Amino acid sequence: MLVPGGPAVTAALTASRLGAYARLAKLDVWDYYLALPLAWSLCGFTGTGVLLLFGVGTVLVIAAAVALDDVTGFRDGSDAANYGPDAPARRLARKPLLTGELDERQALVFGWACAVLGGVCWLGLGLTAPLWTLVLLALLLVSAVQYSYGLKISYRGAQEVFLAGFGCGLVLCGVGLVRGAPTALAVVEAVVFGLGPLLVGVYSNANDAAGDAAVGRRTVAVLAGPGGHRAFTAGLTALEIGVVVFAAGLGAGPWWFALALLPAMACRVAQLRVGVGLGDALRARRWGLLAHRVAVASLVVVNLVVL
Questions:
Q1: What confidence tens digit (pLDDT) does each residue in 130-167 have?
Q2: Distance CA 52, CA 47 (A)
Q3: Any transmembrane segments, and where (predicted)?
Q4: Which residue from 11, 56, 150, 167 could staple onto 146, CB 3.0 to 4.6 Å apart?
Q5: Which CATH number applies to 30-306?
Q6: Collapsing DSSP states into helix, strand and coil, what is residue 211?
Q7: Where are the domains of the chain?
Q8: What letter would DSSP give residue 127?
Q9: How confident is the model at residue 8 (pLDDT cuts 50, 70, 90)?
């Protein structure tokens, strides 16, 4: 017996389920994906097909990491604490396990399926690349899957290392897959890129410190306390600015490299003022996203001129 409106209802439910999976994969947070156009520009705008497949793998691997992270956060209650009704600035809809749109089994199947498919894309490409690229791809894949699941490296004091290292590694792998060996400029730009997600994450960690401490997630914000974490954040900001300022002196970039990155560094200083000076971690996080995106756009322009 046909139910009136049945196909329409089915389509709506399907769309809703797909939307829940998209939010589980955090597809609206695309800042790591900017490693792909940056690597493309470092390769002289060649290797498009290779980098597109690498990009597909990157989306899948990141989707696996954040889906498994949500499973762990759902199990230990940290997401409920950080995204609950007492935290109105956070969007609960970003956590479909908390809203009940997906269950734990569905999230696990999705996460592991993405990990396998992403790994096939990455490691398949790596078989024709230099050995260091293949090894780095494998390291990025394993660490992403184990970020908050399995070994739980983000719970064991290595979250900040992962956030920077993963971004840096994406750029270097993209270059390695196309060119074989990174230039000094590519290494500098990879470091600047990696510091971008880190200088977003540290402000999120400042906001989530209480919830993370309650479940044993040892971030710097938890271990160092408010004062120590502010000093750590200021130090990271100074490190990024230092890399940019001294890139030309180290022979890695043109003399005007720092001038090209000036808008991004201005955003970074504004982020430090808002987050450390005024104590508004979530607004500082938004400044961090802007600083990272402006930095990547500026680096692409540098590469367009230099390479």
A1: 999 999 999 999 999 999 999 999 999 999 999 999 99
A2: 9
A3: 38-68, 161-178, 184-206
A4: 150
A5: 1.10.600
A6: helix
A7: 30-306
A8: T
A9: low
